[in-house]
């Protein structure tokens, strides 16, 4: 996960492959996760072949190894919110080190906390690979995502729900609205200046336990955060450029 904070890019977690000849390697344990926190300062010039990272892990280490979560910057640049993801106990290397869907990193104190006391509403069940953004009112929008073995579920399931977390009120909400997209994970979410969120690509699923299917890039869902409405647009190209379905991509306005 990576988040821009002023002129620094903060990096958190990630995964490292376990050699296949290792005695701990198996089909459900192919990676060890990282609990590191470090940043790259963009205010100074650097060699792109050997950038100077600053490692904060000794004082800011994550509570667990983490990957496939989503991070957003809120509270006027004071806090990074980590939503979901795979969580690995770094001592036992077992997954599901925490039941919490939301963790908060405070920039000034360089410490991690959970969403903590005072949080209320319909809590989002923990999952990974969501499409997550935060708007100018410090409300986090979390769409879709998935669960499987690495998040504690024996049944591979992709979701089609939209949750919000108001960081000011510490309030969760499940926005059950008509015309929402099909189930999807690994799609991109881009916030427009007028408050609309654009969702593109990713994976979908017909029923829990079934294989995932890539979504056409021409199928673009839009959520209007002002009107709380969904709409669907179909993209086309004058030059007949065909952009194939894909997952895990990024999109920036």
Please outline what is shown here:
The protein has one helix at 57-60; strands at residues 2-5, 8-12, 15-17, 31-33, 37-41, 53-55, 65-67, 70-74, 79-83, 86-88, 102-106, 111-114, 120-121, 131-134, 139-143, 146-147, 157-158, 162-166, 171-174, 188-191, 196-200, 203-204, 213-214, 219-224, 229-234. It is mostly beta strands. The model has no long low-confidence stretch (mean pLDDT 93).
Structure, explained:
With 253 residues, this protein is mainly beta. It has one helix spanning 57-60, and strands at residues 2-5, 8-12, 15-17, 31-33, 37-41, 53-55, 65-67, 70-74, 79-83, 86-88, 102-106, 111-114, 120-121, 131-134, 139-143, 146-147, 157-158, 162-166, 171-174, 188-191, 196-200, 203-204, 213-214, 219-224, 229-234. The strands form 8 sheets. The chain has a 5-stranded mixed sheet, with no helix packed on it. It has a 4-stranded antiparallel sheet with strand order 1-2-5-6. It is globular, with a radius of gyration of 19 Å.
């Amino acid at each position: 996960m990576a988040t821009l904070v002023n002129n620094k890019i903060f990096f958190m977690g990630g995964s490292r492959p376990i050699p296949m000849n290792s005695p701990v390697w198996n089909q459900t344990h192919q990676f060890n996760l990282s609990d590191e926190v470090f940043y790259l300062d963009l205010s100074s010039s650097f060699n792109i072949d050997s950038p100077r990272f600053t490692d904060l892990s000794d004082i800011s280490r994550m509570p667990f190894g983490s990957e496939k979560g989503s991070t957003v910057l809120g509270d006027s640049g004071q806090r990074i919110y980590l939503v979901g993801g795979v969580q690995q106990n770094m001592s036992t290397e077992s997954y599901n080190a925490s039941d919490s869907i939301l963790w908060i990193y405070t920039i000034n104190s360089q410490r991690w906390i959970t969403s903590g006391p005072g949080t209320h509403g319909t809590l989002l069940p923990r999952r990974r690979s969501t499409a997550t953004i935060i708007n100018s009112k410090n409300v986090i929008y979390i769409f879709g995502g998935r669960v499987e073995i690495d998040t504690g579920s024996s049944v591979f399931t992709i979701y089609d729900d939209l949750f919000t977390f108001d960081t000011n009120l510490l309030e969760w909400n499940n926005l059950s609205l008509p015309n929402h997209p099909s189930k999807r994970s690994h799609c991109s979410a881009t916030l427009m200046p007028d408050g609309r969120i654009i969702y593109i690509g990713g994976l979908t699923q017909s029923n829990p336990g079934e294989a995932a299917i890539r979504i056409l890039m021409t199928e673009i869902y839009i959520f209007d955060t002002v009107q709380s409405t969904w709409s669907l647009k179909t993209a086309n190209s004058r030059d007949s450029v065909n952009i194939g379905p894909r997952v895990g991509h990024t999109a920036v306005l």
